Amino acid sequence: MTEQIQQSDLQDTVPRTPAAAWQRLREGNARFVAGESMHPNQDASRRQQLAKHQNPFAVIFGCSDSRLAAEIIFDLGLGDAFVIRTAGQVIDDAVLGSLEYSVANLRTPLIMVLGHDSCGAVTAAHGVASSGQMPRGFQRDLIERIMPSVLDTQRRGNHDVNAAVVEHTKQTASRLMEQSRVIADAVSKGDVAVVGVFYHLDDGQAELVHGHGTWLPSR
């Protein structure tokens, strides 16, 4: 009965502030880590409810890695999150347009940039920094966009791949603000917050590493 009540609460209340959205994601991740996922908003009635509209409370821009399924690691359901994924959470014009849509049209109060340890794209950039040999094709574009984070980390004497992932997550979150007036204005008004999160593959913990906004979550 308790679980049914809790699931009902999750379905009926949609966080509309950055703080409330972050709290919902933290709670979902805690359930996932503990092996107590509730799988809310995944039934037929939820599907029917969303047939003509959506009202997500967070937009999650993360790496395409198959182990980084946002709806699972934050214990979410249909309509809860607007999810965008590219290898190494690399920004391009389509990503920025999608993020702006979520803020301007869907009124989503929280943008999360989600990186993870042992990221293949960052590892590849790390290798290129050592060898100087770029991959062929469009993978080169990915490496070039990640390389500033790798080089900045190495200049500080840290050659750990995961340190570069954290730096890349931070720089990506900052770049959203720099490149998008829509996002920057929403953050300055307090309507939206941008957070950078580092996900640990082994234990499932989602760790806050960066934030922008008049409201900043506690760690």
Automatic annotation (TrEMBL):
Pfam families, per database record: Pro_CA
GO BP, one example? carbon utilization
| Annotated GO MF terms | carbonate dehydratase activity; zinc ion binding
SMART domains, sorted? Pro_CA
Q: What is its EC number?
A: 4.2.1.1
Binding-site list for Zn(2+): C63, D65, H116, C119
- Keywords, A to Z? Lyase, Metal-binding, Zinc
**Superkingdom as given in the UniProt entry:** Bacteria
Cofactor remark: Binds 1 zinc ion per subunit.
Q: Which residues form a coiled coil?
A: none
Q: Which cofactor does it need?
A: Zn(2+)
Enzyme class comes to lyase
User: What is catalysed by this protein?
Assistant: hydrogencarbonate + H(+) = CO2 + H2O
Membrane-spanning intervals of the chain: none
Which Gene3D superfamilies is this protein grouped with?
Carbonic anhydrase (3.40.1050.10)
Stored SUPFAM superfamilies:
beta-carbonic anhydrase, cab
Q: What does this protein do?
A: Catalyzes the reversible hydration of carbon dioxide to form bicarbonate.
Instruction: Give the similarity note.
Output: Belongs to the beta-class carbonic anhydrase family.
Name under which the protein is recorded:
carbonic anhydrase
